[in-house]
Amino acid sequence: MLSWPEQVVRVQSLSESGIRAIPSQYIKPLTERPVFEPGSLVHQHVDIPVIDLHNLFCKDPTLHLDTLSRISAACREWGFFQAVNHGVSHELMRRAREVWRDFFNLPLEVKQEYANTPITYEGYGSRLGVEKGAILDWSDYFFLHYLPVSLRNQSKWPEQPSSCREVIVEYGGEVVKLCTRLLKAMSTDLGLEEEYIKNAFGGDNMGACLRVNFYPKCPQPELTLGLSSHSDPGGITILLPDRDVSRLQVFINDDWITVNPVSNSLIVIVGDQIQVVSNAIYKSVEHRVMVNSAKDGVSLAMFFNPKSDLVIEPAKEVVSEERPALYDAMTFDHYRLHMRMKGPCGKARLESLKFNTP
């Protein structure tokens, strides 16, 4: 049975022990360390896309098309955007953050009841990848399946806090509605049938997983990362960011740019499978997460992925003589195995599959 190669250490426990120097297995190589400037907001001048989605849901065709064009530009040029007026209740977002913070503040022995393994990653975890001696990230997490319902196992969801399971269902339901609308918008913009991407991902059997990240305080944040550089292997990610500290960085034009979240926004991230289906018209974005010496943080990432055994390939409508297919067909199960075994590694996995150039 596949298992972790070394004893799992909970980063939160390390942080709360009062250490002043982080263990060597968390120290990143010089080239991977964050550009860390305490108290500063990096790249304030960069106009990161913020899109008001209110008009995406309205019947006025002019306003709808304007919103669609903004989504199109963000997905083609940036690979992500911040969404406001997205339809997810602000109060529910607050409750979701709060209930998960309460979970991570439970005694260790309670959380350990949900300890995960690298077979499915479901449950309470502290590492990605199974390579012995790997350099680790400064974070703990909880991972669970939300869709399809046949994979949803609430017995593996936290019983405490008492409202946790209810909040997961409620928050997940609202985010699924948002994702469905965004996939329709993306399909339309790419010249595909409105339901194309959703159907390519399995329709009602499309996968949805929730990863809740906990980033403990770190005594040497300039030496490590909360989550190493990677692009999301799935289709689309909807991230509820940490409210108090700007942690997310995206790699744009050969530079790491810090994303300062807009109040009550959700961050929409294009994943590798959308890049494949669109034949690289849309770009998945390489990103990473910084940690902080003064404040811990909680974020919720809902991943929407193809059904694991479906073959994903560029849509025929976006392939031509001028722009041949850039990627071979592959099941999502086979594709994501690389990250589950190796852990985060930039966009190396996706780039290794490219066999043509536009």
UniProtKB/TrEMBL annotation:
Keywords attached to this entry: Dioxygenase, Iron, Jasmonic acid signaling pathway, Metal-binding, Oxidoreductase, Plant defense
One GO MF term attached to the UniProt entry: metal ion binding
Catalysed conversion reaction: jasmonate + 2-oxoglutarate + O2 = (1R,2R)-12-hydroxyjasmonate + succinate + CO2
Any single biological process term in GO: regulation of jasmonic acid mediated signaling pathway
Highest classification ranks of the organism: Eukaryota, Viridiplantae, Streptophyta, Embryophyta, Tracheophyta
InterPro entries assigned to the protein according to its UniProt record, in alphabetical order: DIOX_N, IPNS-like_FE2OG_OXY, IPNS-like_sf, Oxoglu/Fe-dep_dioxygenase_dom, Plant_2OG-oxidoreductases
Similarity annotation: Belongs to the iron/ascorbate-dependent oxidoreductase family.
Key word Ribonucleoprotein present: no
Sequence ranges assigned to domain Fe2OG dioxygenase in this UniProt record: 205-306
Gene3D superfamilies: B-lactam Antibiotic, Isopenicillin N Synthase, Chain
Cofactor: L-ascorbate; Fe(2+)
Name of the protein this chain belongs to: Jasmonic Acid Oxidase 3, JASMONATE-INDUCED OXYGENASE3, jasmonate-regulated gene 21
